[in-house]
Amino acid sequence: MSDEVGGVSYAAAGVDIAAGERAVELMKAKVARSRRPEVVDEASGFAGLFDASALTRYERPLLATSTDGVGTKVMIAQALDRHDTIGLDLVAMVVDDLVVCGAEPLFLTDYIACGKVVPERIAAIVGGVAEGCRIAGCALLGGETAEHPGAMGPDEYDLAGAGTGVVEASRLLGPDRVRPGDVVLGLASSGLHSNGYSLVRHIVKAAGLSLADEIPELGRTLGEELLEPTRIYARDCLALADAVEVHAFAHITGGGLAANLARSLPPTVDAVLDRGSWTPPPIFEVLAGHGKVPQAEMDKTFNMGVGMCAIVAADAADAALAVLRERGVPAWVLGEIVAGTGQARL
């Protein structure tokens, strides 16, 4: 039966197709800014197309893939009603995993589930994804927005993404290249990035804090700090690998510095890190203090100011730091690789 005679409709069930179509129109210009020349315009409307003939310049191209989300950081964006940066976090979590093996990110697709499609909000989220793709050098090739009334509140949403990259087989980075004598470089994070927010929200609630609170140590509100976008390292890491002898990268996400760095080590070496070589940003001390969180718990939950590690040949360390400095990425000598059993030791 039709709406005109009082019958049941999709809209009555809470799904607004027209709002979805308006959201698509609002985001088109932003998505276009992430375009790469390999994107094929004659797509079906159901799938994005990427011209794989671009891979013929590789002798043995290896495709790399990664998928991720941004966890409960979305709840901070929702609480502040600010949605233009959370997409940057999504891209960072995906492409910075890809680049660890030396892969150049080619394209990304996103998925947004929400309780109600508010076109301007969806466009802001996707606009952030598109801007992140532009920064990373990959195309936002497609995506999906799904309205789930009843399963999610009208102001709730979650997002995820999947990316594909390519690396020449002979230039694949990873544990097999790491050896004693290598130097570990730390690349500074922009803050919490997108991990540990369940603990963050617990601390905020237990300590009676508000996202609107001005925190002197931070120089801004707590909400502004917690919503700081994740740094996107992809192009910086690729430039570094082109310029100097890089053996491995490690993306420091959930689990902290030691656990993530260990994933990039062979079982015959350890990474010995110097905790005194850097000072974590103030947000970590603020959280530890208000939450009375032990150092060991902080270390295994947060990046503590190190968002990415690069393991380079000893004689390449100075040149590597110079490359990163020129690219505006704060970096320093974090430690060294010694004979061991595959552990990262702080």
TrEMBL record:
It catalyses: 2-formamido-N(1)-(5-O-phospho-beta-D-ribosyl)acetamidine + ATP = 5-amino-1-(5-phospho-beta-D-ribosyl)imidazole + ADP + phosphate + H(+). GO terms for molecular function: ATP binding; phosphoribosylamine-glycine ligase activity; phosphoribosylformylglycinamidine cyclo-ligase activity. This is Phosphoribosylformylglycinamidine cyclo-ligase. Residues 59-167 form the PurM-like N-terminal domain. It is found in: Cytoplasm. It holds the Pfam family AIRS_C. Pathway: Purine metabolism; IMP biosynthesis via de novo pathway; 5-amino-1-(5-phospho-D-ribosyl)imidazole from N(2)-formyl-N(1)-(5-phospho-D-ribosyl)glycinamide: step 2/2. Its EC number is 6.3.3.1. SUPFAM superfamilies: PurM C-terminal domain-like, PurM N-terminal domain-like. Residues 179-342 form the PurM-like C-terminal domain. GO terms for biological process: 'de novo' IMP biosynthetic process; adenine biosynthetic process. PANTHER family: TRIFUNCTIONAL PURINE BIOSYNTHETIC PROTEIN ADENOSINE-3 (PTHR10520:SF12), TRIFUNCTIONAL PURINE BIOSYNTHETIC PROTEIN ADENOSINE-3-RELATED (PTHR10520).
